Amino acid sequence: MSASREEVQSVLRCEETARRPLYMPAIYEHKAFFLGDTPSNVSRDADLLTRAVLAEYEALEPDALTIGVDVYNLEAEAAGSTVSFYEGDDTSIPGIKPGNHIVTPETDYSQLSVPNPLRDGRMPINIEATRRVVEELGDSLWIRGALSGPFSLAISLMGAEDFFLCCWDNPEASKRVLAYSTEIIKEFGKAYIDAGAEVILFDSQASPELLSPKMYCEYVLPSTKELIDFFGELGVPDVPLIIGGKTNRIIDSLIETGANNLLCDFTADWDTWSAQCRESKRSLRRNISPRFVETATPDEIYQFSKQIVAEGIDTPGFIMGTAVVPYGTPTENLLAVKRACLEVSG
Which range marks the domain in which residue 247 is found? Predict the structure, then answer.
């Protein structure tokens, strides 16, 4: 069974009483698989999304659930961007149409409104699904609403090439789009909180594989810290910050954001991350490769996961995770990861 909310909080606060490593696979577009449906269909229907989240819970009993499918699209879509969906049996992930961006360095933000999460785009679908899932599962599980991070949303609003060039050539314009992004994320996050959930920030476009540590400090850190402080003021102290890739070079900045649940992706250096999170008393999720989870045998996955858990068990606040699980990954493979969490203890 899943850990209780109190047990999850014990891990997030790096308490010695934590019963075991938490099990948190990254299930987004794969939610649709549990219904035999497509990500495009599930992401556009509150009833399907609710059923998919509950089916994920029934199949995997993870220690947290996330409301969201194509997690980087909803805010930009609600602000006016167009998302490509796929019909029939196509299980491709929806995405912002290339070139379909709504801001430029010259945009006058006084002419733009912040989307209403109860009215605009597909935000209301996620909020309604959140209400239903919370009503079904109550306070017994850590339920989070998916939010884009500020840098990733800025890229969705302006386009990657234009925004990176803007950061170099027009810092003030870059900061204006980040400020607009931050306000959108606040409103969407508040709606999730009002619906009974907490929040999780996804900002992998800010990975040091794309953005230098210096630029992270200048452009991303202030907005991220502002968001985490904002959600804390709303009574949500546990805000995971998800940035994939080789993030060792920005660990200090990620800790400075105030997020209390950080990510060591499968390509990052575990020893560095573990030492830093021990010192700063931050909960740490360690991912394993999604390709490995998709293609290996359940026994191979169990043996590898058992090794990873054994390496992490002495790190306070340790969480066992996966990078984003591909659509169609066998359920028995995901349960092999959970078995390792249940069987390895400190």
Answer: 5-343
